[in-house]
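dumping the sequnces here before i forget
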Amino acid sequence: MAEHDHKLIHAFGALAELGQEITNKNNFQETIRTSLHLISGALGIMRGAVARFSRFGHELNMLAIRGLGDDFPLSLSLTLEDERQFLSCGLTPIDIQQAKVLPFFQVYDASFERRGLELFVPLVVRDEIVGAIFLGEKATGEAYTNYEKEIVCAMGQHIGVAIAQRNLMAEIERHADENRQLFDEMRSTYHDTVKAFAAAIDCKDKYTEGHSVRVGKFSEIIAMELGWGKDEIEGAAVAGYLHDVGKLTVERKIINAPYRINAKESKELNGHPGVGYEILQPIHHPYTDVPLAAKYHHERLDGRGYPDGLYDREIPYIAKIVTLADSFDAMTTDRPYKARRPAKEVVEDLQRNAGKQFAPELVTAFLGGMLKELQGQDKTKRFRRLLGRDYMEAEGIVDTLKYTLNEMAPTTPMTYVAAAGQVIL
Amino acid sequence: MTTQSAVVSSLESVDGTAIIHAGDYINKLSGEQIEHECKRKLDEGCKEIILNFADTEIVNSIGISILLGVIDTASNKGAKVVFSDMNENTVELFEMLGLTKHVTLA
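..and the predicted 3d for all of it:
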């Protein structure tokens, strides 16, 4: 076989390997290092380098170097004239010895000559400089033939695409980061707006100041106790914050009435869930059930609620959560016509109304969370902060909670025996 | 001394000479093993590296590049590189790419 054919076969083998290397999902740095090996090995080149072009710094930064010594510059600046020239040449090997008219080759002349660099190949992809290849002398000592320059071009094209692809990926990652940041900012703006709305709703009613905020927090606690995910917990909190938004359209004197309101006033007040739904429905919430929670937070499992008198399974789950949080707050705060009720009594009320007004599993989850805090298993002090330490630590509350939970969700041996019909107390 | 496929072995250096046996296929993995072994011997002060290719059947482009690197490193350290026991194809390949110009053949 003629030597020329032999060289061609060897170079084709290297080109095939290069294609494989670049399409493999290897580490980028390693891919470039291997690519340099493949060019060097294909043509028997003693030394060389591959650099990436930084369009911000207008410089070529080395990605892989072979045999150029530790003092070879790792970053080489380009002037605009150099860039224009390289772009117009495209992917064509430039003979360094004959290109000294360009500032780039004048500035780095000594460095290139000391290392015997002979060829410079600008890597141009889609009319953009993405990098460059520097190649030193061949081990044979002969000059590069045209056919060898073509091989260098073909291999350079692969390497250029690999660099361009890497740049694109980095840009996509950067955009993704920016989007994430933007989303977080929007999310925080949304929550601030929701809280501002809740404060506006609460301003209408001086006796129930902070009601919407507390219902938001209680709804959040229930969702947490149910083991929901972060987004769903946030959604429950928002539903709680906004459940009474319809009250913005109810006369202030009706909301603040220090007496039992008449039928007409009652009709206006009872319209607030529907109005709330109308207000919230056109808004694109990240959590879909927020308008439904506003509309149905006065429904009851036994069908005696309003506005639609829905039964258990007809009521959206989020509304059941807000109903419990809303009623709990009503019972534990002073109202114009009713004083705050002791915690023990409230717990008993929740138990009594579980299955009628409230979903039993929600009552169990909520009271379970309360017991965990009082027994020190939960250190967040969520209930103490919302209801006050003295109120939550009233005598007998822990026993009442234990008893209630045991009755509602039997887990202890005592209830197991009781269920078997041999009651031992 | 024999070597397994793609595995490199080297004899203890005697009088500043190290003998390194290349495997049957010199690619990136085995090439880097050879490179590492040569570097170690040069760092130990060896002035002559004998690379034995008795078992070598194929050398790919990455293998060529790595061998050129070994030659360059040895030359920078003032050490001599000897290529020994190459088969006909390997000699032809090394000659074509100019490696044989920089080493002693044995």
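Chain A touches chain B through 26 residues (CB under 8 Å).
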